[in-house]
Each structure stands twice: as C-alpha cells, then as structure tokens.
Amino acid sequence: MAKQEGKLNRELGLGDVIMFGVGGIVGAGIYAIIGEAAGLAGNMLWLSFAIAAGVALLTGMAYAEFVSQFPDAGGSFEYIKQSFSEKTALRLSGIMLFTGIIAPAAIAISFSDYLGRLLEVPHWITTIGIVVFMSLINIIGAKESSWFNSLATIITLLGLGSVIWFALPSWGEADLLALPETGPRGLFLGSALIFFSYVGFEDLVKMAEEVKMPEKTMPRGILISGVLVLIIYVLIAISSVNVMDPQELAESKGPLAQVLETVAGKAWVTGLVVVALFATSKTILSNILGSSRLLFDIARDSNITWMQKLTQVDEKRNTPTFAIIAIGILVVAFSLIGNLKVVASMSNIFVFILFITVNIALLRFRKTHTKGSSAPFRIPLNINNYPLPTLIAIIGLMVLLVFNIHNLF
C-alpha cells in the first residue's frame, strides 16, 4: 500500500463544515446526557443548555479567529504553538488528545444504552463495536465520513423535530421559570454536565486542512453551527420538561425516547431509538476524526522517532490510518468504564481546561503578534485589543469547571 507523509486534500465545503459542526455537537448533549442534566436543572433545563451554549459560542469565536489565520489540522495544538511555543504546545498536547478521546467514550456508552432498548446484547460488545465501526469509516476517507455524518445529522434533526412537533401541544404545562430544588446551583451543575458535547468545536477546526478556502469557510461554519445547536437544544429542553417530570427524565435510560412515547405512543419509540443510534454514532465519528488529525499534526511537528508512523497518510484514501487506529483503541479503553455521568464529567475537565487555554492563547497572540490585526475573521468588541467576548468566556468556563468538579466528586 503506497503511502505519503504530511499532506491532506481540500475537498470539503461550507455545507460539510456546518454539518460536521452540528453533527459533532447535537447527539452527544441531547441524546446522551439530557436526562442526567434534567435531574440537576429541573424545569429550567432550557436555561442550562443556553448557558452552556453561550459560553461555548464565545469560545467558538476564539477558534474562528485562530482558524482564519492558521487553517491547520492541529487545531488548538497549532494555536497554542503560535501563541506560546512548540514546546508549550507539546506539553499540553495530552490534554488536547484526552479531550477528544474521553468524549466519544461517553457517547459510546450512551449508544449502548439506546441499543439496549432494541436488542439484548452485552453493553461492552456494542460499545466496542460502534467505536471500531466509526474508526473504519474514518479510515475509508474524509469525504465518505462527511457523507455518513451528513446523512446521520439529517436523520438526527428529523428525529428531534418529531419530538418538538408532538410535544408542542404540551407546551405551557410546566413552569419554565421554576428553579430546581438546589436553586441556581442546579442550573450551573446542569450546564457543566452538558458541556462535554461542545468539544465538537475543537474537532471541527481540525478539519481545516481538508476544507476549501478555510480562512473564510471555517469561521462561518463554526458560528453558524453554534447558533443552530443553541436553538435546537433550547427547543428540545422546553419540549422535554413540558412532557415529563425532570426526575423521570433523569431516571430514564433513553430520555427522549421516553418523551416521544408519552406524547406519540410506542409506535414512534423504535424510530427515535434508531435516530438516537445515528446521532450518537456520528458524534463518535466526528470526535475520532478530529482527534486523529490532532495526533497526526503533533507527530508531524515533533521530532519523536516512534511517532513518525502516525504521520503516514494512505495515498489512496488520503487518511492518517495509524493515527485513527491509535485514537480508536484509546476511545475503547475509556468507554469500558461504563458509567456515563462519570465519563462525561471526566471529559468535561479536559474540555474546560482546553477551552480556557485556547482563549488565553488568543489574548496572548493579540498582545504579541501584529498578524492578528488583519485576520480574515476578528472577534468584535475589543478593549485595548483584548476581545471582551473572550474575557467573558474565560470567566464562564472557570465557573462551569468548578461545578463540573462538584458533579464528578
């Protein structure tokens, strides 16, 4: 098999980027963890989603400014390298990698929970199986991965649309301003738990070397997909708590399937479970794609001899095969922990640290480089060249990190 090193082809457009952005986020938060979050946030689950989405979008703006200048497969690894040094980026590369490894592990657990509603198969078998299958699709090619992701995203959105449609007559039955028993603290606990799904932003920018005109396409894709996800999440959260009590959602193995069964009958449940399987599988696909590109870029930029195998790109498929296999093995290892809330909270620690680091890196880059002043995309609302949205994002991430640690312990 002929191989080349260090180069990926540009074959994806704005539609692909938006689909990967929406697909990389929707699925994890809605299908995997909405029940657990409802148990924390109560009827104000919608606000928990909005808080998480708002903080994530502010960070997404930092990613958008960086990727418009450095359309590199390394994502945050490249941004930290440019803002600080390659040595600093290499030291932090472990955090970046684990961010994109533990999140799909949590989602693989959720996939098994949903599949368990249809088939009696040991969870560990289905968990390993879905990770292996998504890894194989990644190996086949980026365009093929995009086709699967687009199909699965469309199916996912249709499924979520059916939940909203059937729940509409129930809107108004729940007091959406009623605080949970734990008060405002519950809102932030819910936001912290749901946040792991937003690692999709990190995975998205790692596709930059495979996107046409990435300097303009990537920022647009990041921001458009972020706003779309915010709208979808809030509508689903409102629909869910109007149909079912938040504690019932928390106790359900397939919360959205339970919501649809309540308002539409059992005939629709199987369909939604199938949709959930597509939703969770495509998110695993996106996470593995992003993490493998990061590993590929780290190996390419490092002088570590044993990592050079990871820089090899299959000439026929144009994918970093060995990097994908390595990521797949690590995802399987963490998914076998088996506890969704624990794995999601573990993932969040890495997501929060990574997002905080990227925002700080942008502040430093703005201070030490003149290149940023002519970036194709530049964050608005600046004070002495420091973007106010980035400063707010750092504060929000630190607050949610504290609440996430509370969730874990």
Compact description:
The protein has helices at about 15-25, 30-40, 45-70, 75-85, 85-115, 125-140, 140-165, 185-195, 200-205, 215-245, 245-250, 255-265, 270-300, 320-335, 340-370, 390-409; strands at about 5, 310-315, 380-385, 385. It has about 400 residues and is an all-alpha fold.
Stretches where pLDDT is under 50 for at least 5 consecutive residues are: none
- Could you tell me how far the N terminus lies from the C terminus, measured between alpha carbons in angstroms? 48 Å
Which strands sit side by side, in order, in the main sheet? 1-2
CATH class category name = Mainly Alpha
Number of domains: 1
- Residue share in helices? over 70%
Largest sheet: 2 strands, antiparallel
- Briefly note the CATH topology name: Amino acid/polyamine transporter I
Q: Give the radius of gyration.
A: 20 Å
- Helix/strand-derived class? mainly alpha
Q: Assign the CATH superfamily.
A: Amino acid/polyamine transporter I
State the shape.
globular
Q: Which sequence of SSEs, written as H and E, runs from N to C?
A: EHHHHHHHHHHHHHEHHEEH
Write down how many β-strands occur, each being a DSSP E stretch of 2 or more residues. 4
Give me the number of helical elements: 16
Average predicted local confidence, pLDDT: 85
Classify the beta-strand content into a percent band. under 5%
- The CATH architecture category equals Up-down Bundle
